[in-house]
Design brief:
Elements (H helix, E strand, L loop, with lengths): L1 E2 L2 E6 L1 H6 L1 H12 L6 H13 L6 E7 L2 E10 L17 H4 L6 E9 L8 H11 L5 E6 L6 H6 L3 E7 L8 E8 L5
Parallel strand pairs: 5-6
Antiparallel strand pairs: 1-2, 2-3, 3-4, 4-5, 6-8, 7-8
Helix pairs in contact: 2-3
């Protein structure tokens, strides 16, 4: 699929592993940091763990062969999940129930700075979520993340806040949910 001269491609976990260096480079550029800095090193660790998770999917955006953006995520496992741990305000037990096919986590959506504001992020978002069969998707952002109004404009709703874990980038995260399938 091609949108605004940017071609989108879907990938599984094995392919994602082979793209890790490109993903790290694009991630660093999106945040204006060097690929070896702490933020990118933390991204690498998270990404490597997620490539083998059930339901993992990656969508990449390329312009002239160069990786200019990507998004990926995975399906939450059945039973108890750390994802909803400590969310406030506390939702209903039914909301927290995970079946192994109910909720897909939009873990990362990153676009190189020079391609931001051109619709690349939205195209990635729509491509990855349009291919999902789960009932809903979820994502977490820092409490003051500039992307929050963007997510809300795309139909996401804030459901609460969770405390961050020791060593996390933020001390708390806002959780959002989007019902699937989405009709844009």
């Amino acid at each position: 699929m091609t949108i605004n001269n940017v071609s989108l491609s879907h990938h599984g976990g094995e392919e994602a592993s082979g793209l890790l260096e490109e993903l790290c480079d694009a991630y660093a550029d999106a945040y204006g940091v060097e690929p070896g800095e702490e933020k990118t090193v933390a991204f690498r660790r998270r990404a490597e763990k997620q490539f083998s998770r059930p339901g993992f999917a990656l969508v990449t955006a390329r312009d002239g062969g160069r990786l200019v953006g990507f998004t990926f995520g995975y399906t939450l496992p059945a039973g108890d999940t750390h994802w909803w741990g400590g969310v406030q305000p506390e939702p209903t037990a039914d909301f927290l129930q995970e079946t192994g096919s109910r909720t897909w986590v939009l873990s990362e959506i990153e676009v190189r700075r020079a391609w931001q504001g051109r619709g690349t992020g939205r195209a990635l978002h729509d491509a990855v979520l349009g291919a999902r069969g789960e009932e809903r998707a979820t994502l977490a952002t820092g409490p003051d993340a500039a992307a929050q109004p963007v997510y809300e404009s795309w139909g996401w709703r804030r459901v609460g806040r969770i405390p961050g874990d020791e060593g996390d980038y933020y001390s708390a995260y806002d959780l959002f949910v989007l019902e699937l399938p989405v009709s844009w």
